[in-house]
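Reading a protein record of the kind used here takes little practice once its layout is understood. The reader may check this reading against the record printed directly beneath this paragraph.
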Amino acid sequence: MDLFGQTLQPTAWQFEELAARQGYRQVAGVDEAGRGPLAGPVVAAAVILPPGVELPGVDDSKKLTPSCRDELYDLIFSRAITVGVGMGDHHLIDRINILQATLTAMAQAVDSLVFPPDYLLIDGISRISVPIPQRTIKKGDSASISIAAASIIAKVTRDRLMIAYDRQYPGYGFAKHKGYGCASHMAAIAALGPCPIHRTTFRGVKEHVKGER
């Protein structure tokens, strides 16, 4: 049962257990949130869990409600060995592109772990530039509990940042859509122009950039 009384399939430990059989002892799951939005940073998280720790309800963050993610965010922090967060802001995204900014944020998240990992499980297909053995896993946030935990930390961290940005830059609806390109957001960009946290190289924003910002 998860925190809200729903029965969920437990996210698998198979990749963590395989790494343990290969002799690794500090396995970190790594994931990101915010590659697709038109505004705000991309946020990455890295999480090392104690082997076999109970985290009922932990799954790919996209499958969870906001309230469930918030509950699990606190649970993960309370039970993880260590959690790290990294970020690539809109300036970095516009300068080096979203993929490279994402990999940079992931490396920052790994580097910020209090206890250094000896193996990484990374959501997706791209390795990161750190001198640590690593495995990439397509849809890893549904296959590895460590990656799923990282996806929740990254998503909640980013959502809270976007809610704060909504107060700083009213009129765009960041608290509601978190910077994604929904119809109301596109209409706000057209009416107000981009604000300082918009990604000016992204389609839907760059068409409205006028001169130097």
